[in-house]
Design goal:
about 280 residues; alpha/beta; 4-stranded parallel sheet; 12 helices; binds nicotinic acid adenine dinucleotide; binds adenosine-5'-triphosphate; NAD/GMP_synthase; ligase; NH(3)-dep_NAD(+)_synth; ATP-binding
Length: about 280
């Protein structure tokens, strides 16, 4: 791939994902908060629902959601934010999730352990005869089951309470398709859309998140055999490089080629299912 090819694709991808490199983060907070308030007013739903993991994405989105419902209550008194803790058994970074909730102060917090449901699904599949290549493959597939159990829990709460499910997808995850299709990728609203990972961190800091969470190493934490595996290790490229790619800065050619190949391979995740 030539330098010009990479340059052109950087521009195409940034436009597709609506990246805004120079955006003022305070303006972005206002704009995204106004978006959430508007959705509450126009959809007939009155709650926002979001899983809080202790990672920076859900901390940022949770802080935004709580601010939005507080402002929405002027015209919609029943507006509220329901945060959900969704551990798979014991969560190793439990303290981070608690710190996130301390900062967010959500109207309500529900804790649902997704372990029994996730384990029961894997066991039922294996009893039906499903086999895996090896233990690592089994563990990877189970990771996606966990992400989808979290989706089920959040949609059950949304269904019961008149809620809209918030997703935490942002441009750095979107370009890499780094989420579970119909798992954490399933949601009603995407308030962090278009932000680089750095902008998500800036937003969390601006909204009052503690430094430990603002600077926390991102992890999907889905694999039991590799607990707390960092996203960067899983992706094989750093968020700094992904952010530079998205903002049109120069990136090592091998990083650019990996990002472009992953963006192409995961196009199906950013589109509606194909039809005949
Ligand atoms: N070209 C194509 N057109 C249409 N569908 C296509 C396809 N290629 C694969 N597929 C289908 O897509 C499905 C696989 O997608 P999916 O189930 O998502 O699975 P997959 O992309 O294999 O795995 C999810 C990845 O996202 C990561 N993740 C998940 C959740 C959260 C986070 C996080 O950062 O917190 C990260 C996770 O660690 C893992 O690396 C399969 O059904 C496959 O056949
Ligand atoms: N243990 C958990 N409890 C509650 N929600 C979770 C948990 N793990 C994942 N989620 C949900 O899935 C989303 C996707 O996870 P992801 O790891 O991308 O985001 P994060 O943990 O908020 O931030 P980071 O990407 O920096 O780790 C989270 O934002 C959160 O809404
Ligand atoms: Mg995480």
């Amino acid at each position: 791939m030539t330098h010009d090819d990479i340059d052109q694709l950087q521009r195409i991808i940034a436009r597709e994902l609506e990246v805004q490199p120079g955006a003022d983060i305070r303006d972005e907070i206002q704009r995204r908060q106004a978006f959430l308030i508007d959705q509450l007013h126009t959809t007939g739903q009155h709650c926002l629902v979001l899983g809080i993991s202790g990672g920076v994405d859900s901390t940022s989105a949770g802080l935004l959601a709580q601010r939005a419902v507080e402002a929405a209550r002027e015209r919609l008194p029943e507006a509220r934010f329901i945060a959900m803790r969704l551990p798979y058994g014991e969560q190793q970074d439990d303290d981070d999730a608690r710190q996130a909730l301390d900062a967010i102060q959500p109207d309500e917090c529900l804790t649902v352990n997704i372990k029994p449901a996730s384990d029961a699904m894997l066991e039922a599949l294996e009893q039906a005869g499903l086999e895996f290549r090896d233990q690592a493959h089994r563990d990877f597939v189970m990771g996606n089951i966990k992400a989808r159990q979290r989706m089920i829990a959040q949609y059950a709460v949304a269904g019961a309470q008149g809620g809209l499910v918030i997703g935490t997808d942002q441009a750095a995850e979107a370009v890499m398709g780094f989420y579970t299709k119909h798992g954490d990728g399933a949601c009603d609203l995407v308030p962090l859309a278009g932000l680089t990972k750095g902008q998500v961190r800036d937003m969390a800091a601006q909204l009052g998140a503690p430094d430990t969470l603002v600077n926390k190493v991102p992890t999907a934490d889905l694999e039991s055999l590799r607990p707390q595996l960092s996203d960067e290790e899983a992706l094989g490229v750093s968020y700094a490089a992904i952010d530079r790619f998205l903002t049109g800065e120069s990136v090592a050619p091998e990083d650019a080629e990996r990002i472009i190949a992953t963006w192409r391979r995961t196009a199906h995740k950013r589109a509606m299912p194909r039809t005949p």
